[in-house]
Amino acid sequence: MAGRLLWTRCACRAVHSAHTAPTTSSTRTIQARSAMGFPGIPSLPSFFPSGQKEIHFSEQKILGYTPEQVYSVVSNVNSYCHFVPWCRASKVLSHSGATGTAELVVGFPPVLEKYTSQLTLKEPSLVKAVSADSRLFKSLESTWHISASPSGSTKHAHIHFEISFEFVSSFHSNLSRLFFDEVAKQMVSAFEKRLARVYGPSLLPPSTKETKL
């Protein structure tokens, strides 16, 4: 009886080992195929749906500055190199009425990209920039819609910031999805800090909530 019991236990252990071994091997295979070699990040083909290359970010906020003040900072492209993340150089080449052309150098280590943007300026409500001759970006467009606060306060502005782009390289477009939202949020934050530096602290009450899309 004891012998049969011992044999049964050994057989059960053998069957258990036979079933658990493939599971461990399968898990390791999935990790080995993860993106950039980091466990926990799915492989690029499965993580990014095919055909979706353009990336879009949109945010709406109420700022404690007048629309004129916000427009003044956003439309001053010459100053971008001093506070916009990854902007290494910025210069307005021409400006006539509601249109203009600017040259920018953007650094995405180890890549440094120089391109021109076509500007559309409507004081104090719109600042739009569309890249014209970039080798890195297939398309790059940013738009600031600036209006009076819905509350009716003349000291607050409502902003709607949108940016969309697509790299020439599909791989770079797909990879950038992993961090693009955070980069875009840093850009909006950089403009807020610039406003504070130029015009002083925000006049927005702490209890006012921001609206995001």
Write up this protein.
With 213 residues, the protein is of the alpha+beta class. The chain has a domain at 55-199: Alpha-D-Glucose-1,6-Bisphosphate, Chain A, domain 4 (2-Layer Sandwich). Helix content is 33%, strand content 33%. It is built from five helices and seven strands, in the order ααβαββββββαα. The chain has helices spanning 2-32, 44-47, 67-75, 170-176, 180-199, and strands spanning 55-63, 87-96, 99-108, 111-122, 126-131, 137-148, 157-167. Strands 1-7-6-5-4-3-2 form a seven-stranded antiparallel beta sheet. A hairpin with a 2-residue loop joins strand 2 (87-96) and strand 3. Helix 3 crosses helix 5. The longest helix has 31 residues, at 2-32. The N and C termini lie far apart (71 Å). Mean pLDDT is 77; it is low at 1-50.
Concise account of the structure shown:
The protein is of the alpha+beta class. It is built from 5 helices and 7 strands; from the N terminus they run H-H-E-H-E-E-E-E-E-E-H-H. The protein has a domain at 55-199: Alpha-D-Glucose-1,6-Bisphosphate, Chain A, domain 4 (2-Layer Sandwich), CATH 3.30.530.20.
* Order of SSEs: HHEHEEEEEEHH
The CATH class label of the domain at 55-199 is Alpha Beta
**Whole-number average pLDDT?**
77
| Major pleated sheet | 7 strands, antiparallel
Annotate the secondary structure layout:
Blueprint: H1 2-32, H2 44-47, E1 55-63, H3 67-75, E2 87-96, E3 99-108, E4 111-122, E5 126-131, E6 137-148, E7 157-167, H4 170-176, H5 180-199
Keywords:
alpha+beta, disordered N terminus, Alpha-D-Glucose-1,6-Bisphosphate, Chain A, domain 4, 213 residues, seven-stranded antiparallel β-sheet
